[in-house]
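Lab channel / #folding
Pinned by the channel admin:
"Please post every new chain as: sequence first, then the structure tokens as a reply. Keep commentary short and put observations after the output so the thread stays searchable."

First post following the new format, from NK:
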Amino acid sequence: MTLETKRALKPATELVHGGTMRSSFGETSEALYLTQGFVYDSSEAAEARFKGDEPGFIYSRYANPTVDMFEKRMCQLEGAEDARAMASGMAAVSAALLCSVKAGDHVVAARALFGSCRWVIETLMPRYGIETTLVDGTSLDAWQAAVRPNTKLFFLESPTNPTLEVIDIAAVAGIANAAGARVVVDNVFATPLQQKPLELGAHIVVYSATKHIDGQGRCLGGVVLSDKEWIDKHLHDYFRHTGPSLSPFNAWTMLKGLETLPLRVKQQTESAGRVAGHLACHPKVERVIYPGRNDHPQADIIARQMKGGSTLVCFELKGGKKAAFGTQNALEVIRISNNLGDAKSLITHPATTTHKNLTDEARAELGINPGTVRLSVGLEDADDLIADLDQALDRAG
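Reply from TO:
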């Protein structure tokens, strides 16, 4: 029997076997199909395949056997009917948003977004006649008040980048459903293991697979997941004709990453919790934000909709930018990088990197202050990470 016809399997098992198709050689690892195109037995067969009357692959820009395995495995993990893999996380976000709306439509988005996502909402969409409104994502009244007759889409991250704000996805989805709109959730910080947006009522989920899914600093990728009807009606043609496709090699790398995703996320989350607890007691730290702590501003929502904490810790240092830069520069194990979800622990200063293009007022509104740093906890021993942070904080003065 195929994997799909057997009993329901646990996520860790699906992430090793899900979606696998083997060639006639019976390879153990998934095959890597780097081909651009495919051949047909006859002209009639080519016609039938292009018409959709005969199954099979046509061109790797929009369908490839290796990429298809990655998409199917992600569907099984996420509980989605269909997916399209993209060249990067921002390709996935842009495709999910832009294929859903047209000139004259209105999009409501949480204001706490990654810098490039804010640019798409605030700068790109209005260029094409799409109206947009940014709201406080934690305020259900704000979501409700922003709805207009032409509102078609809600967009949010949860937890948010970088301050780990958590939004009540089920409640926002209820508001969207009443307005006839769809909800797109960027679920990168939670990972598909810690939070299931589709189960909470969201309609579309996006990931930067570059982060935890690859999780080892090797390649870029993204994925959009939803029901088959929405993908067929909205995403498929956009994807097919604009070409943000994922490289088969990158898809193969992502498949290898998925096999170890539960092990990595579990260890990174446990270590992040320990690091957050230690930093919360440090005299040079003003505040710590971590979804696994009882003092998180949305702790009640986290208890309802997340299965665990996060691999990310946000903290603010006394002494502002000087203290943040001094601490980062003094680190010996943790490296400075704007990436996250990696096997290596990485730290960044959002105000001067990922969110540098926001105004001072916009950053302050999001709680991104001069002393704010974002730490992505890797697979190193938690004791070594804590010792590294302690010595850096001491050396920073």
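NK: Confidence is low (pLDDT under 50) at residues 1-5.
TO: also worth noting, The chain has two domains: 3-256, 259-395.
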